Amino acid sequence: MTTTFETQRAALADVVAIPVTPFAEEGSVDPGTYRALLRRLLDGGITTLTPNGNTGEFYALTPDERRLVTELTVEEAGDRSVILAGVGHDVPTAVASARHARELGAQMVMVHQPVHPYVAQSGWVDYHRAVAEAVPELGVVPYIRNAQLTGARLAELADACPNVIGVKYAVPDASKFAAFARDAGLERFVWVAGLAEPYAPSYFSAGATGFTSGLVNVAPSVSLHMIEALRSGDYPTAMKVWEQIRRFEELRAANGSADNVTVVKEALASLGLCRREVRPPSRLLPESERAEVAAIAAGWSI
């Protein structure tokens, strides 16, 4: 029997939320606050969650913390959300994390880009194939940030692993995305704009049907408004949302995205929803910028 992954594919063609990981005063993961933030997303209409994504500070968490975050997400979401668990690091660690997610009941895994100074394109295929073959029952979504990777390599991976069903594409070049998607197979995969709302309109025009979001932690309705406009082909409305979120996303993207997570947590802190602390190599937002972030968050219909 061939698995079609219809539910998983539909979940990717949506707002793919990347929850933050809140920390308690002593610095540990705060389970109660994390659950409350998840409930807020679910109550706000979000139905696809990615625990252990970059907005969740994946690389700053310990292995035990990453397992905890996945467990809390599956428990809290129940059948209200499709879970796309982030996995990565070395191959054995990524495989173990994927199997753990499967045991918990997650439906998909997102494979973070290999963290290695020397990435061969054939090695990229081997890395992802090892994960995909370990969990054939799960949908697998490569997270692509490598501008040198060709669409033909993704097609090669999917030929070997039919559970590779979607792509989180995060190369900041809409033209390259359009070419990559067509070289790999535009209809073969669900294409997720991996650089969130700022890139969603241009990537949707080239074939994306979903986008990731960290902003959604702060204002689920804003993200949902954008995807509704994009689904209907109403680009003027989508760009109105783009204008609304522009400054917030510029603050996140400044200095090589140094404050990407920091700005989201600062907005949540201004709303009294979690502490602002992040872990190195991220940093707290300077006092001079906190009021601007709070004003932006307060101005959204939340």
TrEMBL record:
CDD domains: DHDPS-like. Gene3D superfamilies: Aldolase class I. Pyruvate binds at T55. PANTHER family: 5-DEHYDRO-4-DEOXYGLUCARATE DEHYDRATASE 2-RELATED, DIHYDRODIPICOLINATE SYNTHASE. Belongs to the DapA family. GO terms for molecular function: 4-hydroxy-tetrahydrodipicolinate synthase activity. It comes from the Bacteria. InterPro entries: Aldolase_TIM, DapA-like. The active site is at Y143 (proton donor/acceptor), K168 (schiff-base intermediate with substrate). This is Dihydrodipicolinate synthase family protein. The keyword Membrane does not apply. Keywords: Lyase. SUPFAM superfamilies: Aldolase.
